[in-house]
Every structure is written in structure tokens, then in C-alpha cells.
Amino acid sequence: MSNNQLYRGSLTTIIMRLLEKEGKMYGYEITQKVKEITEGKIDIKEGALYPSLHKLQAAGHLKVDAKKVDNRIRKYYSLTPQGQKETIHMLAELKEYIENMQAIMNPKIAY
């Protein structure tokens, strides 16, 4: 299993955490920020990003503001109040998952 397969399962959490930190971002900006943060180790493809953004919007977690930039419409995504609450919940679940994986990978041996 490649790292990209692992990250795909976390794409929603990645998107929501970035938006929590940055406020609002457009799709390409999200992909580039992830590349920057991970030093190129995670490359989010548009085919994965936009369906996730649309699902989050449909669930009421994201709002979209369209702005004209250089004769093109650019969609900026940001968290709704419901999305902010869901982000907190998702990050707590991720933290618990990571702790459980660490316990499995490095079990404490009782003597």
C-alpha cells in the first residue's frame, strides 16, 4: 500500500484542517499547500480533491464564494459553523486513531 492510498482516506480531514487554519482557499491552492507542507510527499489530484470538496459542501460543512480573477471564476471554499464543529470532531478521531496505531506499532511490554 502506498502512502497516497493512506492519505486518500484522510483527504477530508486534510481539507478541513487546512481551511480551519487558512480561512478560505481555492482548489489549486489547497493542492499546492499540501505539497508545500509535505515537501512534495503528498500530491492531491484534482480527481480526488473536487469530489471531496463537493461532498463537504453538500453536507453543509463548506461554503463557496465565487470571484472573478483574470477573467475566470475562482471558487473559494471556507468552513461553515457546522464545518468548524465537524473539523474539531474529525481531528479528535484522527488523534485517537494515531495513538492506537502507535500503540500497535510500539506495544509496551509488561514484565
UniProtKB/TrEMBL annotation:
The lineage of its organism: Bacteria, Pseudomonadati, Bacteroidota, Flavobacteriia, Flavobacteriales. It comes from Nonlabens dokdonensis. This is PadR family transcriptional regulator. Residues 15-86 form the Transcription regulator PadR N-terminal domain. InterPro entries: Metal_resp_DNA-bind_regulator (IPR052509), Tscrpt_reg_PadR_N (IPR005149), WH-like_DNA-bd_sf (IPR036388), WH_DNA-bd_sf (IPR036390). Pfam families: PadR. Transmembrane segments: none annotated.
